[in-house]
Amino acid sequence: MFEKWLDAYASHTTSEKKRYRIGTLSGIVGLFSNLILFFIKLIAGWLSGSVSILTDAINSLSDTASSVLTLLGFKIAAKPADKEHPYGHQRFEYISGFLVSIIIIFVGFQFLTTSIERIINPSKLEASPLIFVLLIISVGAKVIQGFFYRSAADTIHSTTLRSAAQDSFNDVYTTIIVLAASLLEFFTGWTVDGYAGTLLAIFIIYSGISMIRESMDDLLGTRPNEQELAEIQDHFEQFDSILGYHDLLVHNYGPNKTFASIHIEVDDSWSLTQAHVVSDHIEKHFKDVLGIDLVCHLDPIAVQNEEHTRIYREVKAILKSNQLNLKFHDFRVEELENQLKISFDIDVPEKTTASNDQLRASITRDIILKVGPAEVVIEVDRLSLLKH
């Protein structure tokens, strides 16, 4: 809804400055809109004496504090790298999101207590059409705020603003519940205010816990999602000069700070200069196109040696025949004094039930039957991101 306007607002800047400008604007918009909503709901709650409306008002006040933390988070995250923080400060966005979650949970528990007290000691609401109008206005304002946050999050790929957008839409649902409870009590006289407040408080606590989980995942580091992995794999498929790739590692130091390493398999007859040119080209491509600082580790493969190539094909056929969808890499054949030494790594799918020792024993037995006496060294990897 707001994407084109936001793009125009932050045009002609670098990606990091664009992120800072849009993030700061989002924090300011959230700060003032949540303050206005707080006062609207506070007036409605004070006029009606409704604990559920007051709970919703304080929830808007906590959103104001969240906006302050969002502003602070984007300001610190925009600081350049320094001696103590060579990868920059973008992860502070995750910390600010974590602090926002703590505030939300605290507010939720405070009003859970107040709502339970209202259930025990119910009191009649002093409702009026003005109160309902104020609540409807607050619903409309939160819908607009939620779409603004979502557009900003999509523009700069911010998990912090995506959480803020979800929190805004959660507030829409909670205010609708408050409005429904007030209308029900106004027309029927049933004292449901305390129950509505309890329901809202539990919902607020749940939202806070979910946001903490997401912030902790970002801080601890998570596996790239399947879409990101597919995009990385699609780009590697463009390079016909390499024989294969494996052992991808991805480290995120913030939304715009991604570092990765990967092993690329190349012809061992290449000169060091030729291999360096190819790996340098791949690294530059990933930096320019995907914004990933990639480091390539070279794995030479003896494709020109006929005997080694024959053994390679035998091993490939053996792994294919066991129907476990095993992939292998880092293949080496060394000619020792008395026998061959064959070493390689295998990537094992998550659902494979056989133990590492069982896999090694079975594969080793089949290789010796096909190739002859040999020392077989197999490393088992069950956590590979890309398998090729």
UniProtKB/TrEMBL annotation:
One term of GO molecular function: monoatomic cation transmembrane transporter activity
One GO location term (cellular component): membrane
Domain Cation efflux protein transmembrane: 28-220
InterPro entries, sorted: Cation_efflux, Cation_efflux_CTD, Cation_efflux_CTD_sf, Cation_efflux_TM, Cation_efflux_TMD_sf, CDF_Transporter
All copies of domain Cation efflux protein cytoplasmic, residue ranges: 224-300
Claim: Repeat is one of the keywords in the record: no
Localisation: Membrane
Tree of life domain: Bacteria
Keyword set, alphabetical order: Membrane, Transmembrane, Transmembrane helix, Transport
Keyword Phosphoprotein: no
Record-linked Pfam families: Cation_efflux (PF01545), ZT_dimer (PF16916)
Transmembrane annotation, as ranges: 25-47, 94-116, 128-149, 194-212
Membrane topology: Multi-pass membrane protein
Entry's family note: Belongs to the cation diffusion facilitator (CDF) transporter (TC 2.A.4) family.
The protein, known as: Cation transporter
Species, as recorded: Jeotgalibaca porci
